[in-house]
Amino acid sequence: MIVRARRVVLPDGERPAAVHVTGGRITAVTGFDDVTGGDEVTTLADDEVLLPGLVDSHVHVNEPGRTEWEGFASATRAAAAGGITTVVDMPLNSIPPTTTLDGLAAKRSVAAGQVSVDVAFWGGAVPGNTGELRPMLDAGVVGFKCFLLDSGVPEFPPLDDAGLREVLTELAAVDGLLIAHCEDEATIEAAPDPDGRSYAGFLASRPPAAEETAIARLLAAAADTGARVHVVHLADAGALPLLRRARADGVRVTVETCPHYLTFAADEVPDGDTAYKCCPPIREAAHREALWQALADGDVDLVVSDHSPCTPELKRLDVGDFGLAWGGIAGLQVTLPAVWTGARARGLGLGRVVELMSAAPAALAGLPAKGGIAVGKDADLVAFAPDAVATVGRLEHRNPVTPYTGRELTGVVRRVWLRGGPVDGAPRGRLLDRGA
Ligand SMILES: [Zn+2]
C-alpha cells in the first residue's frame, strides 16, 4: 500500500511524496506521482501533513498493581488517538516496579495482547539492584530510570551519590543509559513547605536550585564514569548553562522537557487546581520561554509527555491542597497539539517538532525502526491537520483529570497507521526490545 501527501515530513525536510509500504515496513519514498494503477493508494486531504508516528519515551502506565491509576489498554488508546505509535513505559508506580527481571516479565505479560501501539520498557535502578541491570538490558529494556530524591512510592527508592556512581560504572561498561529525575532532597527540605491551595506556595517549595543541584550531581558522576545519562522533564531553564558546559566538556548527556512546561506558566495556575501539580513544578513564564529557545537552539533534545496519571481522589481536587495531591500531569493524547500550538506561535517548524517528538526519543530509547519516514523503518504514520483547531474534551486515558481540559489547541490528528495498518482501537501493538 501507499500513503501519499502534498506535505510529508521526512528526515531531510518536507516535500510532496508517496510512502510505499510492504509487510509493515517502508520500502520506498518516491515522488507524489510515482504510483501505478495496481497500487492501493491513500492520498491525504489538502489540509493534512504526513508525519512519522511519535515516540513518547516517558509514560507511566502503572499496570500491574496500580491499574486503577492507568493501564496499558487505556494509555495506549490515548497514545494512538494522539498520533503516538510507540510508548516507553516507566519502571515505577506499577507494583512490582520494573527493577528486576521478574518485574519486567510481569510488565510484559500483562501488557501483551492489550496494547494499541508498540510498547518498550525502561528498567529501574534502585539501591541494591545493580546485579539485575545487565540481565534486564539483555532482556530488552531500553535503559534505566533512577530518582535522586524520594520518588513518592516506597518500592522505588532513590540512589545516593555512591549508589549513582555504582550504577553508572556498571552501565558504562556496556554503554547502557541512565535517565534521572533530578531534584535534590536537601534543597527541597531547606525550602518552605507547600502551602495548602496556594500555587505560589507549592512553587516555592521546589525551587530551581533543587533541579540545578541534582543535575550537577548527575553530571559529575557521568563525567567520572564516562556513562551516558539523560535528564528527564527539565522545568528549570536556569540549568541550561550547566548542561551546555557539561556537553562542551564531553559529558554524554541529553535532556528532555515536557508539554506542560512549554504550555503553562505558574501565574496562570489557579490556586487549588491540583491537576497542574507535577514535580518539578510548572515554573514562571520566563522559564517556559527560555525552554522554547533551548528547543530552537538544540540545547534541549526532546519533548515527551511524562504522562503520569492517578485516580481523581489522589489529586485531592476536593480540597485543592498542593501538599497533599499526587504530583503528575496526565495528557499524552494532547502532546502533539499542545507542543505544535506553542511551536507555531513561536515560529518553530513542524519538521523540528517531529525531530523533538519522534526521531530524538527513538534515538534515546535505541529503537532504530522508529522515529522517521525512511526506507527500512516501520510504517508508523500520522495524518495531521496542522491548521485545524479543537477544544480538549474527554480524553482516552483512564482518569480524565488533566489541566488541558477546555483548552483550544491547534493541530488535529486525523488518522494513524501502525506498521502499515490502520489504528482503530484493536490491540495490534507489539512489545519492543532495545535495538529492535
Ligand atoms: Zn515521570
TrEMBL record:
Annotated family: Belongs to the metallo-dependent hydrolases superfamily. Allantoinase family. Belongs to the metallo-dependent hydrolases superfamily. DHOase family. Class I DHOase subfamily.
Name the source's superkingdom. Answer: Bacteria
> InterPro entries, from UniProt?
Allantoinase, Amidohydro-rel, DHOase/Allantoinase_Hydrolase, Dihydroorotase_CS, Metal-dep_hydrolase_composite, Metal_Hydrolase
The record's listing under NCBIfam families reads: allantoinase (TIGR03178)
Classification lineage: Bacteria, Bacillati, Actinomycetota, Actinomycetes, Geodermatophilales
Keyword Zinc in record: yes
Q: Which GO terms describe its biological process?
A: allantoin catabolic process; purine nucleobase catabolic process
Cofactor or coenzyme needed: Zn(2+)
Q: Which species?
A: Klenkia brasiliensis
> Per the record's keyword annotation, is ATP-binding included, yes or no?
no
Tell me, what does this protein do in biology?
A: Catalyzes the reversible cyclization of carbamoyl aspartate to dihydroorotate.
Cellular component annotations (GO), alphabetically ordered: cytoplasm
Q: Name one Pfam family in it.
A: Amidohydro_1
Subunit-level organization: Homotetramer.
Instruction: Please state the pathway this protein functions in, per its UniProt record.
Output: Nitrogen metabolism; (S)-allantoin degradation; allantoate from (S)-allantoin: step 1/1
- GO MF assignments: allantoinase activity; cobalt ion binding; zinc ion binding
Domain Amidohydrolase-related: where? 49-420
Identify this protein by name: allantoinase
**Record-listed E.C. numbers:** 3.5.2.5
Q: Which UniProt keywords apply?
A: Hydrolase, Metal-binding, Purine metabolism, Zinc
